[in-house]
């Protein structure tokens, strides 16, 4: 949801949010359930030796950003939609509850707000709906955004038209573009048409934060009070934004900025 009438003196123009373990706490259990589902897929669908699966899953995640990306790089063949459906289709989404506090915070922010996740569109829609935040963001940059299908020109009504041409170097079918790859961060910046120097990036991953800083973004590590390399701020919880970054609501001269919040529900779209 875009705010209108924003002062040109605003320090920040856009807020870029990771989703999983950032908009909700890791204690929800989705993270562990997701890893379990990935390991099950590796075991039962890719026939990887059971004793090797846990370590291989973690090693690929560390080296390539996601285990899925690592499996592709190693030459394993699988359908992207199929593995996403398997991994996310059995997650305990019931553990996610509406978050009216975060919703009010987001709606009070005058800047553009965009989700930037490695997850697929269906998972992002499910999480935002469960949290009651589906109308709080202008758009979503997700797996499909950075990794369009080979034929590429999507006619999905939920996708912005005209943006796909900005991803000039489209990834190969065997290569998945995702955080913390600097190329993925830079692609997101280009797709969303944002100025890194006027954008704040929120993420729970230290390596994603480091990549965001390398791309020129202002950075906030979420889920800890300890600064990590590349982080400008650290938040124990996403609910602490106002205490840590009051300038989101203020003009550079300290005057309060007023967000123009539309009364009708706005559908969050997937940026493509």
Helix content: 25-40%
Major beta sheet summary: 7 strands, parallel
Radius of gyration: 18 Å
Order of the strands making up the biggest sheet: 6-5-4-1-2-3-7
Number of DSSP strand runs: 7
Proportion of beta-strand residues: 5-15%
**Secondary structure tally, helices:** 10
Uncertain spans, ≥5 residues at pLDDT below 50? 1-7, 152-172, 252-267
**What is the approximate shape?**
globular
Short overview:
The protein is an alpha/beta fold and 272 residues long. The chain has helices spanning 30-44, 53-64, 67-73, 80-89, 100-108, 121-131, 143-146, 182-192, 206-214, 241-244, and strands at 14-17, 112-116, 139-141, 199-203, 218-222, 233-235, 269-270.
